[in-house]
Amino acid sequence: MSLRLKFLIGLTLLFTLLMIGLFAERVHSTRQYVEAQLASTAQDAATSLVYPISRALGKNDVVLAETAIKSLLDRAYFQRIEIVALSGKTMAKMEQAKPIAGVPVWFIKWQHLDPAPGTALLSDGWRQLGRVVVISEPALAYKQLWDVLTHTLALLLATYVISLLVMNFLVRILLQPLSAIEKSANEVQEREFNPIKQLPDTREFRRVVLAFNVMIERVRQFLSIEQQRAEEYRHQAFTDTTTGLDNRRNLDLRLDGLLKKLPQDSIGAAFAIQLEDLSEFNNREGYQKGDAILKQVAHVLLEKMAQQSPLIARLNGTTLFALHFNLNSGQIDQMGDQILASLKEITATLERPLQYGVAIVDFKHGTPKSKLLSTTDLALQQALFNGGESRQRMSANESSNQLPHGSQQWREVLQAAIQDKSWGIQAQSVQNIADKQIVHQELTARLRNQDGPWISAGLFMPMAARHGLLQAAEQSLFDLAISKLENAATLQGQSIALNVGLLGALGSLTGQDEFVARLNKLKKHAARISFEVPEHQLIAAPELARRFARLLRDAGFGFGIDQYGFAATAAALIRELKPNYVKIDRRLISDMAVHKDTKEMILSLIQVAESLNITTIAQGIESEAQLALLKAMKITAMQGYLIGRPEEVI
């Protein structure tokens, strides 16, 4: 109940009591007055009747006495006139009943008037004859009493209504400060701290409002401090201090919900950037420069996402991660290319190269967080294993559910394969274009995850490198490949090519020496064995590349360059390393049918290789049109599905 209503109720009660008191007093005094008036009138009438009645009774003329009474009774002011003898006997009596008009019966019963009779002695000389009794008519008294009551009640009610209106107005003005306090208190609940600007004139309310304003200011300051503290705690808990992006904890808490928000018929994309050897870069260049690079890379994601990403976070020390929901397949590739171009601009300013990889992973509604992150990790490792400065696109929905999930499961699967040598070896033919003779069989490794499908080397080798198992995996695979060379019926009398890299054991001088020492046991097979290294690894470690190529030549083994043609120094590379063959990357072979400049570049590489007596092999030949074009370009050999798919070595 509001204070104003309580004031009005209190005023009503007060007026009610006052009205009852005034009404009762007015009715009582009026009643006393009319009763006294009735008694006085009756007494005057009795006195006026003494002389005529006494004369009539002195003559024993009762009729004359009654005539005198009747003449007075006709005036209608009297109810009864009676002549009583000394003995008490009524000698003459006249009365009338006057109707009481305009007065309620209940009022007459409530305010019953009993007027006092007027009495006068009758005498004839010294002889007493009796007495006359007159009783006044109360009809007019009732009417007068009723009029007084109604007029008084109307006046009091009018006074009450006027007072109520005035009091309501005064109370409204008086309680304005309280209304302002209530409004301000409600605003405080809505986190709006607006002090009361208009101070009341009433001293008590003025003090209350001033105190309330002080309280509001203190509450505002307190909540501001608490809000700032909460934001700081939130920033510390969920924000990466270096890049300003969300941290891994925030990502783990939000990612599941975000993946479920993707519409059923939409494709989402996860973009990840990993900087390779950032810790080494920090040790070499200083942590400030390393942090500056991370901030620039984070800015790239923020700029390219253009506020369209629901999540941009630092996944770990060297990896940044972002989601995007509103891109089609072409736009996803375009954004990946833009991110890659921006990263090249950043790293181009560095004195020493910093390798990086970009992963793009498509996913659909309901894709588990673990699957998305494991696929992203796998794509990143492939991009880095392929030389970095590249992007790898995969699909979390199309990737096999039977692939290892998570870093720990990959480690366990790889360790088991290394220990048990549970690898699969496939061979794909490389064929001369001119006479269709087999040049060699390229051996590729596969890994089985329990009872699931085979996993290609392009998937498991990057993960082996990440977990420090690359050297052990290479050694295990090498032993298995050599055993296949000696024992497999499908390889009898054929040359083989083995893929090796400079990221594992061959990435050090000691490792290369140990590798060559093992090759000495295979001298009898030297003419049948070639080792090929990806172009990007040779360019990344030129000193190791030159040494490894020389060691192989000295030991009598063949040496080839795989995935050749992308480097700007590709022609200079073969002049320096003098490989037995180069395998032109399948992406260039596919692109030359579309872009003339790619075709011209390949043609120039073929001519340089031919001048150095180096065999050129085209990878990924899948159509007769490609084969016809390569024949015209006088390439030496080819490899691809057109001549045969990889087959299991038995």
Keywords:
650 residues, alpha/beta, Beta-Lactamase, Alpha-Beta Plaits, 8-stranded mixed beta barrel, 5-stranded mixed β-sheet, 21 helices, 54% helix, rod-shaped
Concise summary:
Its EC number is 3.1.4.52. This protein has 650 residues and is of the alpha/beta class.
Please characterize this protein's 3D structure.
The chain has 650 residues and is α/β, with parallel strands linked by helices. The mean pLDDT is 80.
What topology does this entry show?
Elements lengths: L2 H56 L3 H12 L4 E8 L4 E6 L9 H6 L7 E7 L2 E10 L2 H36 L1 H14 L13 H36 L9 H14 L6 E8 L2 H8 L1 H19 L6 E5 L2 E6 L4 H19 L8 E8 L5 H17 L4 E6 L11 H14 L2 E10 L5 E11 L5 E3 H10 L3 H18 L8 E4 L9 H11 L9 E6 H6 L1 H14 L2 E7 L5 H8 L3 E4 L1 H6 L4 H16 L3 E5 L4 H9 L4 E3 L7 E2 L2
Parallel strand pairs: 8-9, 11-13, 13-14, 14-15, 15-16, 16-17, 17-18
Antiparallel strand pairs: 1-2, 1-4, 3-4, 5-7, 5-8, 6-7, 10-11, 10-18, 10-19, 11-12
Protein name: Diguanylate cyclase/phosphodiesterase
GO molecular function, one term: cyclic-guanylate-specific phosphodiesterase activity
Organism: Iodobacter fluviatilis
CATH architecture group name of the largest domain: Alpha-Beta Barrel
CATH topology of the largest domain: the name is TIM Barrel
Rounded to an integer in angstroms, the radius of gyration calculated over CA atoms is: 59 Å
CATH class of the largest domain: Alpha Beta
For the biggest β-sheet, the strand order reads: 10-11-13-14-15-16-17-18
- Gross morphology is rod-shaped
Number of strands: 19
Number of self-contained structural domains: 4
* Proportion in helices: 40-55%
Tally of DSSP helical segments: 21
The percentage of residues in β strands lies in: 15-25%
How widely separated are the two ends?
95 Å
Content-based structural category: alpha/beta
